[in-house]
Write a structure and sequence with these properties.
Blueprint (H helix, E strand, L loop, with lengths): L34 H12 L2 H9 L7 H29 L3 H4 L1 H4 L5 H33 L9 E3 L2 E2 H19 L2 H29 L16 H18 L1 H5 L2 H4 L5 H34 L6 H6 L4 H23 L1 H10 L6 H14 L2 H6 L1 H12 L2 H15 L26 H18 L5 H4 L2 H16 L7
Antiparallel strand pairs: 1-2
Length: 480
Amino acid sequence: MTETQVHAPEGAGRHSQLVNDDLAPTTKETATWRTWDLFCLWMTSAHSIASYGFAVGMLALGMTGWQTMLALFAGVLMLWLGSNLVGVAGQKVGVPFPVFARATFGVFGANIPALLRALVAIFWYGIQTYLASTAVIVLILRVSPGLESWTKPSFLGLSALGWIAFLVLWTVQLMIISYGMEIVRKASDFAGPVVWIGMIALAVWIMSEADWSIDLNARAGEALSSGQTVSAFIGVAFLMVAFMAGPLVNYADFARFSPSQKAIRRGNAWGIPFNETAFVVISIIISLATLKVYGEVLSDPVELVAHIDNDAIVIISAVLFAIATVGINVVLNFVSPAYDISNAAPKYISFRTGGIITAVLSIVVLPWKLWANQDFIVYFLGGVGALMGPVFGILVVDYYLVRKQRTEVPELYSGATDGTYFYTRGFNPRALVALLIAGAVSVFVALVPDSASVTALSWPVGAALGAAVMYGLSRKPAQV
């Protein structure tokens, strides 16, 4: 067994198809994720090439630098509130997300939201690995310029050097996850803080290029009217939440290992309002400086690093961006599908096996081609990702308002037809109806063409509608 594996809960033995050591409840011995670890978890979640690109990309909506910072901060506060709701629940019940969802969706129905989350994570896992590999390539070419000839596409749309960098990072991540959640904790503790070295170095360099001054009233897009500014502000705030909607839903995967609710709240407070706000601010400062220096905003920090003449800064920044992206990938896009896939067939698939399946699928989908196809990112990943809002709303309202924070943990592993969470053939019709209705509306809103102000509302609309429908269908509290 890995360090975090425990024995199956009492009463679950005769239903072994619903449990394995990895999906079993946490014990006092395995509750090792304290305030610092959760702080680093959120740091790791925020510090990536994609996160930087997201923050900077919000400038293109037409708001000024300071307005964009304020809007992103509003989103950070909503994310903080949501993380406390999910984190406290996950810590109290002590089980991973797909098992936690069994109380709401049914012991078999939980596979629906879990596999939806896994699907999004698998695609993003491959994409993030590819993005990290681009930082490695910048590093390699700076050290060995003669390898430039290896950067031309050669097989399945990726160059020889691209394949080498991608597979090296792919292997490193697979090795990390193969040792279980305890090594994930240690990797997160390392990856989260170190990226600040690269971000600060990058900020100092670009600010020196900009003569140590930026215009916080500068904007990358067209100037907006007062009404358009309000609309963009609301949109950016909710897009910040939507950007982290996946890890927010499956936060129980990590919160379950915390020894107390106090540690959860402290870790969330330091990791989200404090750290994520700081990361947003430094990202916007860097982008405004690039706007002044180059006349355009560079949304890819790797591209910005490539402009630096100082080899030492290039090497340090490239290494740290690669480390940060590997960290976020393991935390956000590897742990979740590993648990979610294991939950689909616990008797045959362990956490480690689920991780291997995730890693293999991340290559099969050819992520570099997906990243180049923005229609796929917007319509497929955006559409499936929009379902995380309804899942969040349904889970939260069911736990806090319907079941009044009461969960019979052994029953989460019971496949008996008279089990508390067996409902109808293992599926809870109320939760599925709520997901169907709220999900359809959320996806529709997310895919409205040429309307950023409308699509930004997909997460709050889905979450609110999912919660409302679930509560309306569950007027009588579940008997537990």
